[in-house]
Amino acid sequence: MPIIVENSLPACAVLESENIFVMTHHRATTQHIRPLRIAILNLMPTKIVTETQILRCLSNTPIQIEIDLIQTATHKSTNTPEDHLLKFYQTFDDIKDQYYDGFIITGAPVEKMDFEEVDYWPELVEIMEWTKTHVHSTLHICWGAQAGLYYHYGIQKHLLPKKLAGIYKHHIMPNRTNESLLRGFDDVFKAPHSRYTTVLSEDILCNHNLILLAESYEAGPYLIAAKNGRQLFVTGHSEYDKETLAKEYFRDLHKGIHPDIPENYFDGDDPHNEPRLSWRSHSTLLFTNWLNYYVYQSTPYELNSLI
């Protein structure tokens, strides 16, 4: 899928070096089709890394996507250059009168805090409420998934005894193999997790507005959908690069946190060895299925008809 972004966005050079097709705005305007409008609310502190990871995941089907990058106004990132934020990011006030085919809410390193203690929680609540009328399908990732499940459906998160970090096997739930999001999935597939909190399968199964699509015996619920398909929740980080968990592990090690070695990740479970990339095909299929079946195939041509 051609990703339509500003030529000077750092992700452009990275993606083009990986032979991923990135389309400039000029070329896009010469094609007489309506691109999908996707906004990414990037809550991660290292925004350039995260935007590149997600854009990579969105790049594998043949439809144009027009991307807007969104940041919170009530919390300023200190790990991303200010000129990058000013050039490429908007705030909710800038886009609240617009409509989107798809919207992505990323994770954030605030899991140990109660939701209401997060300084931008009121702003995030406003955005999540707005997505009900201005977005056709919203994809929530990791903490973003926990926040969405809590706000929309009252699902509580629970603190784990220790950080869950590694690559875990997942399985499709019985009688869910025909769900559109799962088309092409293997019976057992792998995905990364990196978090201190979780939601419980029994809480999802007891909610009549939600469908548990896939889970892990080790990592818990993984893919959750609202029954109307307008909201999807991914509790892991399928967008992660090969080196992401390694960087997190060595960062925490240098901070004196003494983290456990990420499970099923380094060759031989030895952090001196290279990590093994074993989830890329799942990640690509997950994002492609979301874009195709939950966005492109069902979004209205006139987006303002969503309301």
TrEMBL record:
Query: Where is substrate bound in this sequence?
Result: 163, 194, 251
User: Does this entry carry the keyword Transferase?
Assistant: yes
The broad enzyme category this protein falls into is: transferase
Q: Which GO terms describe its molecular function?
A: homoserine O-succinyltransferase activity
What positions does UniProt annotate as the active site of this protein? 142, 237, 239
Pfam families tied to this protein: HTS
Which keywords accompany this UniProt record?
Acyltransferase, Amino-acid biosynthesis, Cytoplasm, Methionine biosynthesis, Transferase
* Subcellular localization(s) per the UniProt record: Cytoplasm
Its annotated pathway reads:
Amino-acid biosynthesis; L-methionine biosynthesis via de novo pathway; O-acetyl-L-homoserine from L-homoserine: step 1/1
Question: What EC identifiers does the entry list?
Answer: 2.3.1.31
Entry's InterPro entries?
HST_MetA (IPR005697), MetA_family (IPR033752)
Cite the position(s) of the site with description Important for acyl-CoA specificity.
111
Known catalytic reactions: L-homoserine + acetyl-CoA = O-acetyl-L-homoserine + CoA
Q: Family assignment? A: Belongs to the MetA family.
- The protein's role, per its UniProt record: Transfers an acetyl group from acetyl-CoA to L-homoserine, forming acetyl-L-homoserine.
**Known NCBIfam families for this protein?**
metA (TIGR01001)
Q: What is this protein called?
A: Homoserine O-acetyltransferase
